[in-house]
Amino acid sequence: TEELNTILCCECAAPTPTNATNMCIDCVRSRVDITEGIARQVAQNHCRGCDRYERQGGWVQCELESKELLAILLKRVRGLDKVRLVDASFIWTEAHSKRIKLKLTVQKEVIRGAVLEQSLVVEFVVANRQCEKCQRVEAQDYWVSVVQVRQKVPHKRTIFWLEQLILRHGAHADATSIAEMRDGIDFYHSERNHSEKLVSFLQTISPLRYKTSKQMITQDTHTGVYRNKHTFSLEVVPVCKDDLVCLPKDTAEHLSNVFPLVLCQKVANNLHFVDTRSLRLVELSAPAFFKKPFRVLCARDRLREFVVLDVVPVTFRPGGGGRARPGHAKTGKRGTGEAHSKHGGVSTNLALADITVARVTDLGKNDVTFTVLSHLGGVLKAGDHAKGYDLAGRDLDTELDLPALAGKEDQIPDIVLVRKAYASAKRRRRVWRLKQLRKEADSALTAMDVERSRRDYDAFIRDLEEDKDMRKEVNLYRDPAAIQAMEVAGGAKEHGAGGDEEDEDALSEADVGLEELLDDLTLGDNEAFGDETGEPAAQPGDAGTFKLPDGSAGASFHFT
Known about the structure:
Blueprint: E1 6-8, E2 15-17, H1 25-31, E3 41-47, E4 52-55, E5 58-60, H2 67-75, E6 84-91, E7 99-109, E8 115-128, H3 132-138, E9 145-151, H4 157-169, E10 175-181, E11 184-189, H5 192-205, E12 208-220, E13 225-236, E14 244-246, H6 249-254, E15 261-267, E16 270-275, E17 280-285, H7 286-291, E18 296-298, E19 304-313, E20 338-343, E21 346-351, E22 353-359, E23 370-374, E24 385-390, H8 396-399, E25 415-421, E26 432-433, E27 435-437, E28 440-441, H9 447-466, H10 468-471, E29 477-478, H11 480-488, H12 492-496, H13 501-510, E30 527-529
């Protein structure tokens, strides 16, 4: 049977299986080359700056010997469309050789319907070429759009807070660079949609308004192609946590006729206010604020320290406003004088109480005390210290021209307690640190700006220590050096020794526990860690330059 299926080649007379050409495979190959016309050497552009390969329509990042790179290379081989590709595989080459080799197996129909299969090696020469993005970086013209975040207040604690939220959610990942400005941060992007994405994120975490503008950089009159640079200017509402404000009369009436003098309890996508006399919680959106803006009566720099002498929980107060009398309060309903509410995912447990306080500066000098109705009845106890605003002797209606308080002067409290105060001198060494954005300091920053930013960052760190709800929304990381030093010194108890039990309890409230810290210290682009003190790290070699809690040198953090 085999002899019947075997013939002699018409060219060389060698036995060969029966086929349509009547020739052996060697003679067919000598007459027909199906790989003719297929390029054996092809150039492939590669950008060393971003490690991307060029393909039709743009640049793509892929690893060596990956299927993505194989697809790009096969599309660059000229003449491959005239044959049928059966197999393709990489041939190993040295990484520094700038050569990529592919072994291709192809098929093609030849004489009288016979199909011939043949293999060949195609060599790709990797040529270095910068992509457009890297070209703009080298030319110092590397941004297409910028997001400018600003807040018109004398401190930067809100900017630090926004920085932490941006870091936690990775909203800075698309930024080509980040700049530290006197009253905010600038985020530069290579594409406009990256800026729009960041603006949308900031609108979900902060009350703000923004406006856009663009400037034409180049113009091609022949093709009608224009190149513009876009600017997104964001203005954050100039009201911060713990600020005392007086709502305009129309705004107060719109918010269920709340008493105009309220305390800012939280700043999220809306402003959250609490009436410290009645525990009423109200929210104000950013558009409503900018439609009818108002000033801050007392900011954090006017906080004074008081010592708590007595706390009397309030159970009931018959209707009417005015100052509180011991044992009475206005809650809006009969009950215990407590309010339990949730706003933006952060729970607030408030309790009304008549709290007797005295100024710390008056101790040993006089016997002046104040009994105030406060929302901190569930937080303070006799012997504690509290921070608050001293309004005694101030005629707010006349002094600041506040029509909303006209006729309600007798309801303005002498003291507005804001929060509990902790003894910072007895706290343990911090065993945690924050991540920072790598930022370039603006050349216009002065030494005074540097010192102001340092003080604001210290105040922000203390706020995190004293507010557990704030800590839940940011990422705190373990500081191995501080933890090791604490263990060598004998642990947390030795650090807290020397005070009474009440002092140790206070320390435990203000200090951050190890269970709240994260172990993952992996740094991404535009990120760094702060130093052991938690202060913004300076850039090496820049004696007078301050790098925000997110400097681009040394060590740091983004909302740092």
